[in-house]
Amino acid sequence: MALPRRRNLSYNRFRSLVKFISAISGVLLILFAFLSFLAPSPNESQHFHLRHHHNSFNAVVEDPVTSGDSVFHVPSSGGKLDRDIWSSRNAKFFYGCSNVSAKFAKAEAVSRPTRYLAIATSGGLNQQRTGITDAVVAARILNATLVVPKLDQKSFWKDASNFSEIFDVDWFISSLSKDVKIIKQLPKRGGKSWTPYTMRVPRKCSERCYQNRVLPVILKRHHAVQLNKFDYRLANKLDTDLQKLRCRVNYHALKFADPILEMGKTLVHRMRMRSKRYIALHLRFEPDMLAFSGCDYGGGEKERNELGAIRKRWKTLHKNNPDKQRRQGKCPLTPEEVGLMLRALGYGSDVHIYVASGEVYGGEETLRPLKSLFPNFYSKDTIATKEELAPFSSFSSRMAALDFIVCDESDVFVTNNNGNMARILAGRRKYFGHKPTIRPNAKKLYRLFLSRSNMTWEAFASRVRTFQRGFMGEPKEVRPGRGEFHENPSACICEDSEAREKATTYSRGKKNGKLDDSSRKKEVIVSDDQNDYDDNDEPRWPDLDDDENQVWPQEKLHYNGTGSDYDAVISDEPELEEMLSD
């Protein structure tokens, strides 16, 4: 009897244990289901990380942002690259050349005493600069005497300065005396002031256009003509002697007035006192500019409402697709994106940056990521006193001239948007030694910025350097004749072919181990193959005599889709055109 009772007891205990385990399992399943319901999906979790990265990424630059299995960690240093980030490769073989040729007759031989040309410029300082340069060439085409140009005093910029308050007018007249006769004002006619006949010419007007449209008016009717709204009114392609005249005007004759020049030199000196080298950034991030672009800069509903309200001021602007704008490279880089691009290109947190900008949308909040990456952050307002800037602060063109000088003298110039100032400085820096000038390859970079949280910093930086090849201000980046002449003054850039040939021979000998002792003692010259890129990726440039329809590597692989401000302006909105001009 005892044995069956023991078996029955063991059986009951086993059943109780099974029931207990089942109950515990049920509770755990219910708890797991409850937690699964509350937890976000993997996609939502990743989206949170991306959003957090976008909004507060640079609060602490050294903190990594993890997404999946990869880590995006921005280093404080620029890393070690096999190139000099402060100079352009092969720049020593190129130089500016705008001397007059023997066949270019002197002004006194071609100027007609009864022909006078006056012009009224349009836009901001840099757009007016292009107008002044082209006016001298137009006067030469017409064999006319040029009256010192009138500056735009009524546009969006509302600057009452005249020519002599911005530029050295006496130097302007004397330095061009062999090319064009220039006078300060029209002579009186019959003892009375002479009012010229006013007219306009179409944009990109050629030599023949001026001879057919303007010259007959001067000869047959009035002898004095004023061309109004004179901006981009001369063709991009002209005879070589006329192109060189453009360069003599832009790079030699247009010198700022002494007060501006001296204050500009003071600002440059103060930057040099802080650091041996510095970067200058021309930052176009004003509310009006962003509203016009129609792009999305990550500010959410608040940003869309604020910029949308500004955009409504211009009735001719249609609704844009923000994603399409960015894909086409039409969106200015944000301050944070500029900072990331510079770090990837090798510039560390110890680099000093001078920022030339107007009102930045979002103020300090927008600038904080850039300042976190580059704490040595300056502007004319931080390195000069209010008293020092007082003679200039009420005049937008004079303030812009100060920024122009500091940017021109910088070791590296970078822009977030290809406006007039950026293009003029790009051309000027090529002419005076090909100093590094960084233009963002916006069409390629935008995808990289969007997906940066899904890659390591090393992968990101490598791709930035690849995409920026052809956008760094190196010699022969852009095909001669392509783009605006003020940005690419190819007719005024000459090559020292003899020195280049010697350098190439030296480099080949070094590569093949055939240098003699005397050659080893010579100065080492950087050759085409000494860079941090794979030789197979480097663009190979055809000869200048190649067929006109040849597709150059720059156009095929690296064409910068960031259009100029001017290209996108609606002519029915004069205020908008003036605002975007610089």
List keywords for this structure.
alpha/beta, 26 helices, 582 residues, five-stranded parallel β-sheet, Rossmann fold
Assembly state (oligomeric): single chain
Name the structural class.
alpha/beta
Number of helices: 26
Helix content: 40-55%
**How does the major sheet shape up?**
5 strands, parallel
Q: Whole-number average pLDDT?
A: 81
Low-confidence stretches: 37-68, 515-571
Computed Rg: 31 Å
Ends distance:
108 Å
Spatial shape: globular
Q: Within the largest sheet, what's the order of strands?
A: 6-5-4-8-7
Strand residue percentage = 5-15%
Give a count of the beta strands, DSSP E runs of length 2 or more: 14
What is the topological layout?
Blueprint: H1 2-38, H2 42-56, E1 65-67, E2 70-72, E3 94-96, H3 107-110, E4 116-121, H4 125-142, E5 145-147, H5 163-166, H6 169-175, E6 182-183, E7 197-199, H7 207-213, H8 215-222, E8 224-230, H9 240-253, H10 258-274, E9 278-283, H11 287-293, H12 300-311, H13 322-327, H14 335-344, E10 352-357, H15 363-373, E11 377-378, H16 380-383, H17 386-393, H18 396-409, E12 412-415, H19 420-431, E13 437-438, H20 442-450, H21 457-467, E14 493-495, H22 497-512, H23 517-520, H24 553-557, H25 565-568, H26 574-580
Parallel strand pairs: 4-5, 4-8, 5-6, 7-8, 9-10, 9-12, 10-11, 12-13
Antiparallel strand pairs: 1-2, 3-14
Helix pairs in contact: 4-9, 10-18, 11-12, 14-15
